[in-house]
Amino acid sequence: MTSSLPKISTQPSVLPPKDSRRRVSQALQALQESICQKLEALDGKSTFQEDRWQRPDGGGGRSRVIKQGGIFEQGGVNFSEVWGHNLPPSILVQRPEAAGHEFYATGTSMVLHPHNPYVPTVHLNYRYFEAGPVWWFGGGIDLTPYYPFAADVVHFHQTIKAACDRHHHEYYPAFKRWCDEYFYLKHRQEPRGVGGIFFDYQDGRSQLYHGPEKAGAAAQYSQDVGKLPARNWEDIFAFIQECGSAFLPAYMPIVEKRKDLEYGDRQRDFQLYRRGRYVEFNLVYDRGTIFGLQTNGRTESILMSLPPLVRWEYNYTVDSGTPEAELYDTFLKPQDWVSWPL
Amino acid sequence: MTSSLPKISTQPSVLPPKDSRRRVSQALQALQESICQKLEALDGKSTFQEDRWQRPDGGGGRSRVIKQGGIFEQGGVNFSEVWGHNLPPSILVQRPEAAGHEFYATGTSMVLHPHNPYVPTVHLNYRYFEAGPVWWFGGGIDLTPYYPFAADVVHFHQTIKAACDRHHHEYYPAFKRWCDEYFYLKHRQEPRGVGGIFFDYQDGRSQLYHGPEKAGAAAQYSQDVGKLPARNWEDIFAFIQECGSAFLPAYMPIVEKRKDLEYGDRQRDFQLYRRGRYVEFNLVYDRGTIFGLQTNGRTESILMSLPPLVRWEYNYTVDSGTPEAELYDTFLKPQDWVSWPL
User: Fold this and answer.
1) Which terminal residue of chain B has fewer beta carbons within 10 Å of its beta carbon, N or C?
2) pLDDT, tens only, B269-293
3) CB B187 within 8 A of CB A294
4) Coil vs helix vs strand at A168
5) Biggest alpha carbon distance in chain A?
6) A138/A124 Cα distance (integer angstroms)
7) Cβ contacts of B306 on chain A, cutoff 8 Å
8) Residue B142: left (phi > 0), alpha (psi -120 to 50), or beta?
9) What angle do CA B298, B301, B304 make, to 5 degrees?
C-alpha cells in the first residue's frame, strides 16, 4: 500500500524547514489570490475589495470581500499572519508543549453566501501554527446546501476525497468524520450542512485525530487505523496545498450548474431561515470566531463569515414530502456521500 | 432617610417564607399575563400563541409568541419554572453555598422586535432562585432604540428610576451601572442599547453588586454606598413586582408615540443592521442564552429573543451628521439619562 502513497516519507522530520513560515504564508496567499480571481470571473458582476490591516500585538492580514455580486450576495476570503507571546488556553490544552513559547500562526479562511438558494454556501480554512518545539497544520472545507441535490454533494465529497487519497487513504475517512462532529449544532441536534473534511493539530504523528471529543467517531476511527506511516512537515504541507487546490474543482461546477435556476419567495425564505443556523454555529460554537472576538481580533474580518441577510422564526417547521423536508431528513444527517447512489 | 423607604425592614429574614415558590411563580405568571394582554391590545392585529412545554429533567414553562403583528414583527414573553439536582458551575462560582443542593428557578423573560425602526426593541427578565441555604432574585429591563429620540430614553429611565426609588434610592444608580456593563459587546466596543437596570444575586445582603467584574463601575458604586439597611425576602420580592409593573408605563408610551411615524428603506436597513448586534450579544455573551443552549433548554423558547430579520454588512459605516451617527455618538455610550436635558 505504501507504493501508492509516494508522498509519505518513511522518516518524520521533527523540525520544520528553516523557511517554513515564508513558504506556508506564500502558499496561503497564493491560494487566496487564485480563489479570488476565479470567483470574480465566475461572479461576473462584482469584485473583491481588499482591506489590509495590522494587528497591534503583532502581524496583520488582508481581507477581501465581495458584495452584491451576480452570484455572491456576500463572500469573504481572508489571509492573516500573526504572532505573539502566548497561545490561548484553549489551544494549550491540546498542545501543552507550546506553553511559554512565542507563537506564529497563518491562515486563509473563506465563506461564500450566494444569492440563489439552489447554490450552497461554502467554507474553507487552512492554517499553520508554530510555537516553540511544536508545529501543526489544521483546516478543512465544508458545504452547506439549502436544497437537496445529491449529485452536488457527491461531487463535492468525491473531489475532496480524491485530493486526500493522493496523500493518504486514511485522511478522507478520518477527516470526514471529524468534520461531521465539529460542524454540529448541539442545541438543534443538527449538523450545519453536509460536511466535507476538518482536521487540526496535524504534525506527522501517527494519530490522526487530536480533538477534545475523545469518544467521537473520528477519535474511534483514528484509533482503529492504528499506526500510520510517518509523515514529515513536507508531507503535510503538500497535503494542505492539495486540499486548497481542490476547492475550485469541488465548488465551481456546483455553482455553474445551479446559478441560473429560477427560484421564488419560498426558496428565498427557506435559505434565509437556514442561514440562521450558520450564525448560531459561528457565534455559539466556532472556536476560531469566539477566540477571535474575545481576544481583540479584527471583528469585521472575523464576522465577515455571517450571512448578509438572515431570518429567525419561532417554531418553524417544514411540510413533509417537500424538498425542504428532504434536506432535513437526508442531507442534515451524516451520510456516506462518496458511495451515494445517484 | 429610612422614613422615606417604608418597604425596607430593619431585620433581614434569612429564610424565604414557606410559600415563596408559589408566590413568586404566581406573580411572574401574572406579569406575563398582563403584559401579553396589553401588548395584544396595543398591537391590534396579531395575538400571542401559547406553547406549553415540559422539561425532561424537571419543570417546564409556557412560551407566548406574537408574529407579524400590526406593531410587533416578532415578540416573545416566556414563563418558566424548573428544578433539578445541580446548578451549573457558572452560577455556583457566585453562590458556592448552593453546591450539592437541589435548585428551583422561575422566571419571566421577554423580547419585542417592532416593525417600525422608530420603535425601540425592549427586553425584560425577572427570575428567582432557591438552592439549599440560599435564595436570590435577579433580572432587569433594557431598551435598544434604532433612532435617537432622547425623550423616549429619558422617559424609559425615569419610569424605571421611580419604581426603584419607591424601594431604595441606591437601587437605580447601582443597577443602571450594572446594566451598562452587562449589555456590552466587547468585540464592538459598544453597549447593546441605552440600558435600563440589571441586577443579580439580590438576597438582602448589604452589598448590591454581585457580579464577575470586580473592577467595574457597578462594583465600585456598590462599595461606595457602604452598608445598606437590611432587606428581607419580602422587600426584594416587592421590588421585583414593582419593576415588573413598571414595564408597561415605561415602554407603551414610546410605542404609541412612534408607531405611526413613516419610514423608508434607509431606516429599515439600519434597523436590520443594528439587529445584528442583538444577535451577537445574545449568542456570544448572554449568560442565560448560552447556558440554556448548552444544557438542553428548550431551544425555540431560548432563541425566540432573536430578531425575525437581520442583516450583516462588512465594514458598514454611518455618515456623520445623520441620525444614525447620532445613535452611535450619543446613545450608544453610557449616559446619565434621568438628568438628560430635553
Assistant:
1) C
2) 999 999 999 999 999 888 778 767 7
3) yes
4) coil
5) 59
6) 11
7) 276, 312
8) beta
9) 140
Q: CA-CA distance, B28 to B81, in Å (whole number)?
A: 10
pLDDT digits (tens, 9 = 90+) for A44-87: 999 999 999 998 888 999 999 999 999 999 999 999 999 988 88
Residue type at B224 in one-letter notation: D
The ipTM, to two decimals, is 0.91
Going from the C-alpha of B216 to that of each of A288, B178, B201, B209, B285, the distances in angstroms are 28, 8, 17, 10, 17
- All 3 cell numbers of residue A207? 494519530
Residue A35 is inside which H or E element, if any? helix A20-43
Which residue type is seen at A295? T
- Among the listed residues A123, A157, A168, A210, the single catalytic one is A123
Cβ distance A314 to B283 less than 8 Å, yes or no, reads no
Chain A closest-CA separation from residue B87 CA (Å): 19
Residue for grid cell 452570484:
A71
Which residues lie closer than 8 Å to A314 by C-beta, 6 or more apart?
A: B63, B65, B67, B74, B76, B300, B304
For residue B224, give the C-alpha cell.
Answer: 461606595
For residue B264, is pLDDT > 90? Answer: yes
Q: Is B186 left (phi over 0), alpha (psi -120 to 50) or beta?
A: alpha
From chain B, the residues in CB contact with A304 under 8 A are 314
CB neighbour class for B102 (10 Å; exposed up to 12, middle 13-18, buried from 19): middle
pLDDT exceeds cutoff 60 at B10: no
**The predicted structure's pLDDT at residue A229:** 77
Kindly determine whether residue B314 and residue A74, on different chains, have CB atoms separated by under 8 Å: yes
Specify the residue for cell string 504564508.
A25
Q: Which of B116, B179, B178 is nearest to B149 (CA)?
A: B116
Residue with cell 489544521: A138
| B305, burial (CB in 10 Å: exposed 0-12, middle 13-18, buried 19+) | buried
Place of cell 428551583: B104
- Give CA–CA dist A314/B64, Å, rounded: 10
Alpha helices in chain B (DSSP H): 20-43, 89-92, 150-165, 171-182, 217-225, 233-258, 265-280, 287-294, 299-302, 323-326
Indicate yes or no: CB of B187 within 8 angstroms of CB of A294: yes
Q: What is the pLDDT of residue A185?
A: 94
Q: How far is A48 from chain B (nearest CA, A)?
A: 12
B287 within 8 A of B213, measured Cβ to Cβ: no
Distance (Å, whole) CA A256 – CA B339:
60
- All residues of chain B having their beta carbon less than 8 Å from the beta carbon of residue A63 are 314
CB contact under 8 A, A300 and B314: yes
Q: Are A289 and A298 in contact (CB under 8 A)?
A: no
* A320 CB-contact burial (10 Å; exposed 0-12 / middle 13-18 / buried 19+): exposed
Terminal alpha carbon distance of chain A: 30
Q: Which of B187, B272, B279 sits opposite A279 (nearest CB)?
A: B279
- What digits encode the pLDDT tens for the residues A172-197? 999 999 999 999 999 999 999 999 99
